[in-house]
Every structure is written in C-alpha cells, then in structure tokens.
What we know:
FAD/NAD(P)-binding domain; 35% helix; alpha/beta; Elongation Factor Tu (Ef-tu), domain 3; 16 strands; 2 domains; six-stranded antiparallel beta sheet; 451 residues; 16% strand; binds flavin-adenine dinucleotide; five-stranded parallel beta sheet
Amino acid sequence: MENKxxxxxxxGLAGSEAALYLAKKGYEIELYEMRPxxxxxxxxxxxxxxxxxxxSLGSNDPLLASGLLKQEALILGSSLFEIALKNSVPAGNSLxxxxxxxxxxxxxxxxxxxxxxxxxxxxxKINPNTxxxxxxxxxxxxxLCENIKQEFGFDDFHFFDAIAPIVQKDSIDxxxxxxxxxxxxxxxxxxNCPLNKEEYENFYNILTTAKRAPLKDFEAQYFEGCMPxxxxxxxxxxxxRFGPMKPVGLFDKRIxxxxxxxxxxxxxxxxxxxxxxxxxxxxGFQTNLKWGEQKKLIQSIPGLQNAQIVRYGQMHANTFIxxxxxxxxxxxxxxxxxxxxxxxxxxxxxxxxxxxxxxxAAINMDRYLSSKEMIKLDNTTMLGALVxxxxxxxxxxxxxxNSNWGIVKAIEEDKKKLKDKKYKNELxxxxxxxxxxxxxxxxxxxxxxxx
Length: 451
Ligand SMILES: Cc1cc2nc3c(=O)[nH]c(=O)nc-3n(C[C@H](O)[C@H](O)[C@H](O)COP(=O)(O)OP(=O)(O)OC[C@H]3O[C@@H](n4cnc5c(N)ncnc54)[C@H](O)[C@@H]3O)c2cc1C
C-alpha cells in the first residue's frame, strides 16, 4: 500500500507511543534510537521509554489534571499508559511504575510487531519527503538540533529552561496585592505584591537557607547564563531589591502616601501567563529550589500566602522548539506537512504529557496519510488544552507547560458552586471525557468502515 512507511525518531516516551499506534494501524515503522551507541547524559540504558528521573507518571485520579490526561489518552488508545498500569507499584492515587518492568514490557511490545524496525543510529537530518514523527525529547542529539534550527529558524530553538513559578490568580489575596504597571505606563497589567523591610528580610532568610535541587553535570554548563533568584540573593541582601524585586515606580493607589520614588521596600510582580488570564507567573523568579522550599518562599510573600502553585520554577537542560511558530494544532509542522513533532521537544513537560502528545501526533499522522480530516482536540479536554497552549501564537515568551486546570476552558456555572474544588473538577473532568469519547467514536467508526 502506498504511503505506508513512517519514520519515528526517538524511542522515548512519545516516540514509543507513536510507533506502537502506527504499527497497530499497519504502517511500516522505522524507529530510530541512538542509545546505547550514544547516551543523552540522563539516560543510562538501551530500553525504550526509559524514565530518566522519578518513576511517577503523576496522578491517576481523573479529578486531577494529570489523571485526566491519562484517562483521555487511555480512551484514545494509549499503549504506554496501559503498560504503565500493568507495571504500577503502590503509590496512593498516583501512577508510579516499576521502571524496568515498564520499559521491558514496551520493548517486548515493540518487538512483537514485525512492522517495526528499530534502527540504532543518530538521526541527523529531516527529510521533508518522508512522513516522520520527531520525538527526540529534551536532550535531542545536537546534529539533529542543528538541522531543526536550519529548517525552522535559529531563534526558534531553546536549550535551557529557566522557569519561574506560576500561580492561580484566584488564590491571590488582593487586599494586599494590587494592579499597576511601573510608573503607570500603559495598562495596569501586573499584579504587584509589596513587601516592607521586615517582610523582605524574612523572605531573604527563607531564600538563602532553602535547599536547592541538584544540577547534573550536563546542566551545570548552562547555569551561569541564567540567574536563579537564589544565586542573585547570594550576592548580597539588596541585590534582588535592585533586580526583579525593585519597588521603584510601583504604587498602590489605595494607600494614601505622597508618591515619590518608592512606596514599598520591595515588590514581587506577577505577569499574565495564559490567554484566559487566570494564571500569573512571578517575574524574574526562575529558581532551582526544591519544590517544598519554593512553596514556603512564595507563601511568605504578602498577597501570596494562600497561592495555589500550578507550576514550580525549574532550571534544567531542555531542548524545545518554538511550537507556536512551528506547529499547527495537529502537531504537524506548518512548513512540511510530512513532519510531525511530539513529546517534550514541543514544549510540553512531563512523562504523561510526552506520551499523550506522541499518541496525538500518531493519530494525526495516520489521518493525514489516509487523507482523513485530522483531529483538533477541543480545549475542554486536557490534551486539547495542552496543544492549544503550546501552539498559541500570543505568548510573550513561550515556555514549556505541563497539564494543569488553568489551561482548560473555564466552565460556565454558578461561581459560588465552583468554589467547591471537587465539584468544579468533577464538572471539568466529565466534560472532557465526554468530548474524548466522541473522538474515540469517530476513530472507531472510520476504522470499521476501512475494513
Ligand atoms: C534530567 C531530566 C529529568 C526529568 N525528570 C522528569 C520527571 O521526574 N518527571 C517527569 O514527568 N518528567 C521529567 N522530565 C521531563 C520529560 O518528561 C522526560 O524527559 C520525558 O522522557 C520526555 O519524553 P520524550 O519522549 O519527549 O523524550 P525522551 O523520553 O527523552 O525520548 C527521546 C529519545 O530520543 C533519543 N534521541 C535523541 N536524539 C536522537 C537522534 N538525533 N537520533 C536518534 N535518537 C535520538 C533519545 O536517546 C531518547 O531515547 C525530565 C527531563 C530531564 C531532562
């Protein structure tokens, strides 16, 4: 049959998922994997879908964002989540796996398909004439990175994540925080959390005594170029007050003072992070502190004492493309119709997110090659919302994202009732799964018609 060959690059989480989906559909798959000939620095085995760090794939509860994402992918036919469930170890309501069992079972599954040929080589150059899913992950090999840069633009490629934490707007205490832009220039777009001298000193003490996450050798080389707040703080108590926490020109007009240069000792600013404006990031707060320490630090800031943190700050080597410019909502490149990109390379973050985008890229590759309408998932679903986020062209600075409720389309309901989080999540989850069931039906009906 014509058009039945697909190359999948990288047998990580996204690539293995994509290869298995397409193999089931009867495609001849060439699955390129450079390990064990060449390791990434984080991987240590030759197994597919090696989990490089934690063995947790996040929550299993569909009332939580990561759990919903898994449920959606399972309905759409995920092989990897099924294998993960078979290899799960006790971990409350999260899906943690025996990492070797998980990878070995995926390897067996790949080997069970005679139409998957594993090629142990570095894949160096995209061929726009060959249907290809690129899923080489956050530690993509540098020759391929160079080629991607040449093909899609040098400024559209990032090697490092210096991520600031993101909080939910409705958890901010606006009796303390206020809206303003510096010197009242333009719209009052920023949320400002002011600190007096005593509050700043308390914040500084927490920051300078907090535990940091260790950096790997291959990450340390990037470290000097990005300045986490804890490193800035170690240069002197006032460094942050002259940097990201500078108070100059920021005034809370509710407080009657003579407006001079400074009304406060220091100010933390938060900037809008998503289109629907319910998520805000802490400006200049890229950090490598451990997550528990970040929570303590953020909640010591007036106005953020009850902050719901949807993403913690992180610093690590992470190759990702400028998806808003490069990809469409099908995970297909806008430049070359034959080329799809999946996994962490697209700017999603996390094991489950990588698996799920691998699945969606494969579904759409199949549909593209069979001349069927591709699937655009609705942003009421967690996977659809993730894809919408990474392909949204309005980001001021595109940064990777993991599954969270803040990116999902808000629900129209009585606001009072929605204050009950469980009730709200039940509605969101139900709505998403209903939508995914519809998509499943479309996929199944068309499959039945084809035979
Ligand atoms: C150090 C580190 C720790 C992380 N820890 C966690 C964590 O604890 N929890 C979490 O949810 N997420 C974590 N992540 C983030 C992310 O979820 C994982 O990296 C995840 O494995 C990404 O899946 P992927 O399929 O996109 O890439 P990967 O799983 O990394 O798969 C990519 C594959 O492509 C291969 N490859 C790369 N370039 C080439 C090439 N040119 N030719 C052929 N093969 C190639 C690689 O060898 C690899 O097997 C971590 C990331 C890093 C870097």
